[in-house]
Amino acid sequence: QFKGINKGRKTNIIDSMLRMLEQYSSNLEDLIRERTEELEIEKQKTDKLLTQMLPPSVAEALKMGTPVEPEYFEEVTLYFSDIVGFTTISAMSEPIEVVDLLNDLYTLFDAIIGSHDVYKVETIGDAYMVASGLPKRNGNRHAGEIANMSLDILSSVGTFKMRHMPEVPVRIRIGLHSG
């Protein structure tokens, strides 16, 4: 049996066992290296997702296991919007068409907010919420930043077309609150 394992060569059993252990060890090292790389990629994805969902300071505190203390912001402006007639549009559309509509519209909105001093708080269904003055304080610029962003969004929606119903205009309802 031993000659069969060694392909007919005459070798010392100890040398053969050492060679097999070295090969096994090398295979384990390669496997550990691969798994470590996979783990690092998944960790990067998780970190990116966490920072997209939460302000960076909160995400860092959660990753380090430290408690997140609530903060008080004196000067903040909030933006809320939704799609006028969204229920009707949804009823006349396939589910994937609704997903495409929201994805296209909010990708457009996300590109616009990138050029303003604002923070996207939440999107739920057709509701879109943005704040200025938090999590980074910006003095008395918060109202102006949100107002300019709102005008840019409103302007872009005027030329926006749904893929599945290009003839139906998309209108949004916008609300602002400053305090």
From TrEMBL:
<keyword id="KW-0472">Membrane</keyword>
<feature type="domain" description="Guanylate cyclase">
    <location>
        <begin position="77"/>
        <end position="179"/>
    </location>
</feature>
<keyword id="KW-0812">Transmembrane</keyword>
<dbReference type="InterPro" id="IPR029787">
    <property type="entry name" value="Nucleotide_cyclase"/>
</dbReference>
<feature type="coiled-coil region">
    <location>
        <begin position="14"/>
        <end position="41"/>
    </location>
</feature>
<dbReference type="GO" id="GO:0007168">
    <property type="term" value="P:receptor guanylyl cyclase signaling pathway"/>
</dbReference>
<dbReference type="GO" id="GO:0012505">
    <property type="term" value="C:endomembrane system"/>
</dbReference>
<dbReference type="GO" id="GO:0035556">
    <property type="term" value="P:intracellular signal transduction"/>
</dbReference>
<dbReference type="GO" id="GO:0004383">
    <property type="term" value="F:guanylate cyclase activity"/>
</dbReference>
<keyword id="KW-0175">Coiled coil</keyword>
<keyword id="KW-1133">Transmembrane helix</keyword>
<dbReference type="InterPro" id="IPR011645">
    <property type="entry name" value="HNOB_dom_associated"/>
</dbReference>
<dbReference type="GO" id="GO:0004016">
    <property type="term" value="F:adenylate cyclase activity"/>
</dbReference>
<protein>
    <recommendedName>
        <fullName>guanylate cyclase</fullName>
        <ecNumber>4.6.1.2</ecNumber>
    </recommendedName>
</protein>
<keyword id="KW-0456">Lyase</keyword>
<dbReference type="Pfam" id="PF07701">
    <property type="entry name" value="HNOBA"/>
</dbReference>
<dbReference type="Pfam" id="PF00211">
    <property type="entry name" value="Guanylate_cyc"/>
</dbReference>
<dbReference type="InterPro" id="IPR050401">
    <property type="entry name" value="Cyclic_nucleotide_synthase"/>
</dbReference>
<dbReference type="GO" id="GO:0000166">
    <property type="term" value="F:nucleotide binding"/>
</dbReference>
<keyword id="KW-0547">Nucleotide-binding</keyword>
<keyword id="KW-0141">cGMP biosynthesis</keyword>
<keyword id="KW-0325">Glycoprotein</keyword>
<dbReference type="InterPro" id="IPR001054">
    <property type="entry name" value="A/G_cyclase"/>
</dbReference>
<keyword id="KW-1015">Disulfide bond</keyword>
<dbReference type="GO" id="GO:0001653">
    <property type="term" value="F:peptide receptor activity"/>
</dbReference>
<keyword id="KW-0732">Signal</keyword>
<dbReference type="GO" id="GO:0005886">
    <property type="term" value="C:plasma membrane"/>
</dbReference>
